[in-house]
Design brief:
- Belongs to the short-chain dehydrogenases/reductases (SDR) family.
- Helices cover 45% and strands 16% of the residues.
- By secondary structure, the protein is α/β, with parallel strands linked by helices.
- The protein has a 7-stranded parallel β-sheet, sandwiched between helices. Strands 5-6 form a two-stranded antiparallel ribbon.
- Helix 2 links the parallel strand 2 and strand 3 (52-55).
Amino acid sequence: MNVNGLAAIVTGGGSGLGQATARALAKAGAKVAVFDINAAAAEATAKEIGGVFAACDVTDEASTLAALAQARDAHGPARIAVSCAGVVTPGKVVGRKGPMPLETFARVIQVNLVGTFNVMRLAAADMAGLEPLADGERGVIVNTASIAAWDGQVGQCAYASSKGGVAALSLPAAREFAPLGIRVMAVAPGYMETPMLAGMPDEVMDNLVASTLFPHRLGRPEEFAKMVLAICDNPMLNGSAIRLDGAVRMPPQ
């Protein structure tokens, strides 16, 4: 799929991986709608890339429908949907203060997994009504998993569960949408230079870099964006999750 001239939506587009992806899609000629729960951040990114923005809580159906309607009015139904909205809330199943509060676990699942599914189902419904492109493709959905889906550490039960669910969505959704010409992929980044890692002590950052084999550094958001563009471009990428991690494998803790 050549993204030039096509409509795209990016959730979590106000910062980090989503912002880099919005920039890359716009540079490649896509008409980008930036969704973020932080309206000011979404607006700033959209202004920078010449796109449109919408405040969007991906866990809320009405909010997501409204954001999609705004994007549709500006650019038409999206053929590209990239979900980058997510949260990290570490905590042990049983910590010093007792069991993890159930609402803490549920919130991570709600944002990272349910929110991703919510955007996927609504975007796919729009894509299904589009005329197929020359190669029969109607759209592509790219979700954000994490290497924690396979390498989850102590204190990451909620996060790893949510991202494991995102990775597992890829194949059954791709199978369901295949007759419609809609592909579904997930990218599972390793340690990336994003706001989620900002503010960590130097010692922690040094350990993260030390465990990344090659390149011997943290990943860059722009590299995640390049992977999204590669997925859009290559029609054989479908139904799986790609690790983007410099061969790092997270230790137990």
